[in-house]
């Protein structure tokens, strides 16, 4: 077993216990930590997050409104979003004035699309991956409709080649080159939520720029997972949530990035007081004077409890040395999990699917649809259960859960497993692989 670089941060997180996550087959280990491989959906709570939220609750209880400016820990609420922003800027590879800690992912996506998607009769298409996360699909469709366009024509979805699950870089670049003059915005997810593919963000952004298209990214599954250099890559805009790899808690506050090359020409269309120059914000002048850069897009005063929760995790990232060492550890962990899965007698290689699994035939098994090369993926591996559409996935998922393996199901046939750099370890990978085999063995007996 290759050991992962030393990052003893697991103890800084609160790990759910078997007895609370449906592990009914582990009744004698019900108070032991479960095998949590679902940080791609909802990251775990850091102890520091809990501490910070409790501190803010206490400041609220003891000081009330005074906490905005006079805070016992010098974390006055008026400036707390900016505090989080500096960590976020480091994580996404941007300057601080290019980032805002605000809102929610889909709302931020609409704000950015409204600012950057300016269709003309020649250049009106939105290029994205097929089967983008549904909220993104709805956003793109409704953005096209808001401009009086037919989404069937305006939203150009890229499909993988027949028999493949991921998009090839050369195919994406070729479409941008061919369709460039008609594309207004190229927008992909950094890491695809279903397949776990990490798109070649730099080359897509470069190609889009060459063709005069705006390039934006949904970083929901990329932020805190893979290293990013948004500024250097010349990305125009990006949005993300923080409740996955950034561990801010369910529905946590989100993030937004706008490249500073836009500072002079792009001003926030929908102004709010939190986007106003902080030096005069509380003088309440009648005229909006936006903060330069991403900060100007803020509208409301943000939820302090949500930021406190995020900050706790970001401080833990900082203690870990941020993305470089974390990515190193992530690669080792995911490669290790993949190696264990390859060794399973139920593993089927992708090339054998078409011959062995025609029309619901073939014995129960699984393959991995996430790219094999770590440069093309983050932490997540997406397992596709076979034969397709026969309910194998559901049975395996239930069995995993009954053994305390918390994974993420995507109907009809996929389970996603994500060993997270900060709190997962090799033992988690071994436990998941072991119970996956046990689930198949039980399943084989029951059919
Ligand atoms: C890729 C992607 N985009 C958008 C969303 C929607 O996020 P929200 O509900 O925070 O707007 C999600 C949620 O998981 C997601 O994974």
TrEMBL record:
Cofactor dependence: pyridoxal 5'-phosphate
Catalytic activity field: 3-hydroxy-L-kynurenine + H2O = 3-hydroxyanthranilate + L-alanine + H(+); L-kynurenine + H2O = anthranilate + L-alanine + H(+)
GO BP annotations listed: 'de novo' NAD+ biosynthetic process from L-tryptophan; anthranilate metabolic process; L-kynurenine catabolic process; L-tryptophan catabolic process to kynurenine; quinolinate biosynthetic process
Residues annotated with N6-(pyridoxal phosphate)lysine modification: 244
Pfam families: Aminotran_5, KYNU_C
One Gene Ontology molecular-function label: kynureninase activity
Top-tier EC class: hydrolase
HAMAP family: Kynureninase
Subunit-structure text: Homodimer.
Family membership noted in the UniProt record: Belongs to the kynureninase family.
Protein name: Kynureninase
Organism: Lentinula detonsa
């Amino acid at each position: 077993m290759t050991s992962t670089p030393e990052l003893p941060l697991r103890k800084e997180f609160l790990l759910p216990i078997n007895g609370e996550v449906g592990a009914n087959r582990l009744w004698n280990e019900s108070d032991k930590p479960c095998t949590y491989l679902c940080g791609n959906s909802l990251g775990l709570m850091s102890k520091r997050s809990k501490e910070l939220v409790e501190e803010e609750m206490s400041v609220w209880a003891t000081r009330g409104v005074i906490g905005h400016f006079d805070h016992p820990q010098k974390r006055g609420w008026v400036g707390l979003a900016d505090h989080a922003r500096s960590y976020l800027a480091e994580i996404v590879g941007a300057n601080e004035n290019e980032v805002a800690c605000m809102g929610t992912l889909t709302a931020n996506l609409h704000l950015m699309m409204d600012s950057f998607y300016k269709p003309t009769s020649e250049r009106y298409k939105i290029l994205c991956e097929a089967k983008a996360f549904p909220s993104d699909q709805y956003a793109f469709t409704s953005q096209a409709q808001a401009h009086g366009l037919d989404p069937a024509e305006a939203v150009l979805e890229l499909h993988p080649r027949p028999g493949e699950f991921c998009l090839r870089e050369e195919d994406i670049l070729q479409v941008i080159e061919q369709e460039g003059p008609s594309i207004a915005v190229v927008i992909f997810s950094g890491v695809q939520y279903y397949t776990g593919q990490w798109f070649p963000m730099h080359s897509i952004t470069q190609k889009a720029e060459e063709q005069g298209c705006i390039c934006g990214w949904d970083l929901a599954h990329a932020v805190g997972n893979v290293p990013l250099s948004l500024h250097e890559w010349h990305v125009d805009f990006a949005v993300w949530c923080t409740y996955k790899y950034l561990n801010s808690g369910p529905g946590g506050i989100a993030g937004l990035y706008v490249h500073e090359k836009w500072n002079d020409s792009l001003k926030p269309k929908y102004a709010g007081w939190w986007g106003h120059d902080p030096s005069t914000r509380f003088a309440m002048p009648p005229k909006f004077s936006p903060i330069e850069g991403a900060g100007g897009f803020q509208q409301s005063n943000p939820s302090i409890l949500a930021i406190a929760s995020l900050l706790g995790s970001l401080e833990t990232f900082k203690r870990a040395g941020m993305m470089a060492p974390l990515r190193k550890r992530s690669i080792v962990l995911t490669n290790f999990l993949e190696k264990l899965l390859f060794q399973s007698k139920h593993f089927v290689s992708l090339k054998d699917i078409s011959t062995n699994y025609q029309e619901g035939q073939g014995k129960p098994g699984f393959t991995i649809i996430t790219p094999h090369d770590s440069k093309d993926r983050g932490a997540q591996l997406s397992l596709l259960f076979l034969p397709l559409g026969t309910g194998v996935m559901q049975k395996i998922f239930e069995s995993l859960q009954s053994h305390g393996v918390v994974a993420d199901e995507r109907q009809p046939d996929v389970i996603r497993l994500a060993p997270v750099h900060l709190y997962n370890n090799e033992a988690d990978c071994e436990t998941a692989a072991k119970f996956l085999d046990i689930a198949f063995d039980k399943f084989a007996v029951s059919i």
